[in-house]
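Methods: holo model generation. Sequences were used as deposited, without trimming of termini or removal of tags, and paired with ligand SMILES retrieved from the corresponding compound records. Each pair was processed once, and we did not select among multiple samples. The sequence and zinc ion SMILES for this entry were:
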Amino acid sequence: MTTENPTAIVFRRGIVLTMEPGRPELHDTDVLVENGRITAVGTGLAAPRSALEIDAAGGILMPGMIDTHRHMWQTAQRGYGSDWSLTNYFYFYYINHVHAFRPEDVYAGNLLAALESMNAGVTTTVDWSHGLRTTDYADAAVDALTRVPGRFVLAYGNYAQGPWEWSATREFRDFVDRRITGEDLLSFQIAFDMSADPAFPEKAVFDVARELDVRITTHAGVWGGSDDAGLRRMADHGVLSDRITYVHTGSLSDDSYQRIAATGGNVSVATESESAAGQGYSPTRRLRRHGITTSLSTDSSVLVSGDMFHAMRATLGADRALGHIEAHAAGETVTDNELRAADVLRYATLGGAEAIGLADRIGSIAVGKRADLVLIKNDRNPAMFPIIHPAGHVVQQANAGDVHTVLVDGRLVKKDGVLLLDTRLAEARRAVRDSVDRLRDGMDEAAWNAGLTPSRPDIALIDNPYHYGNHAG
Ligand SMILES: [Zn+2]
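and the model returned the structure below.
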């Protein structure tokens, strides 16, 4: 990385959103970072003479955001499926694209997504990497992640086989031995979706996860896909645990929620994707009622943004919209909104840390924690003034362009609004351009365009009994 990396950094006089219980919001406050750790939080802190001073006045310092489910490998096709439903996604992506992917394409997508995360203040990303058809693909995924000094979780998956098949291979075990070395910035999970097989062949992969001592992440409660029956089979075989992240869950029943809650599982909500594609309604209201740990995720930037500001905003809007719809259906009105901006910010930070088992190290600003920090400050953006409600400002007003400074494990990756990884970005741009060109060259033009503009249902105009003669136009 082409940047200075001072061992001590002090942020001066910012509004600090700690996400810690009891002292969530501190004003005119300094945060001192030494050797990758937060060593002091307070006013007028003494700092080592060598410390880099960052003026945080007029800005908001908060923990780095944590995205608990992103298919980073798909980022090279950013925006191609902007008009897709989930059915479109399965049809176009899996029929036309995925079989043509090489390890280089996974590398390109992962590198671009990793840089995007750093730029947007997402210091930890769970790479839900289900395109790993061989370990050559997995090596490419990790090669890209280790090119960028962010915190990543490789959630290893392979859509082309049952997880009981690929997780049993020698090459998979060799990969884990070679690449997952306990290094702090790269951890590991197993990613798969439940089959419809009543014999529960997935039992074998739960055994592998236990043996490797790693967590599991699974799409669950996706309309038309994974459902209550899959979750019930997991329960019947005694594998539900607090080491599982269930992704989406909007289409699961209350019974499944109760099983998840009773076993300490957590849920990753991808509201933008769920609203656009139709996995099931963003379930944060239901999760709150069941007391289930909640985190946020961006899913796939083929369809929606890869940006946690949008994830937070979409989630707050969807949650409140449902509250209003339910109230109106009962002939009532919502006087006080239930979900608060600070709650959503918690989902995006400490909730994510809890989901991946790292809440003792990251997810909040407290002495002793690793310094994954984001300063949101942009004096050039009129929308960054005034800051009256800091958590609300982050969720409802700010955007990725307002991310001023990012630290991961105490290391500067963005400063003064500039990503300090420009050589990596140039490389990612070349790799992605090559990936898109090759994919497009391998398809006929009609197939490419069909994916770009899926057919659109007719809209039947509602018959209007009123006819006025004099309306303009
Ligand atoms: Zn997903």
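The two ends are 61 Å apart (CA to CA).
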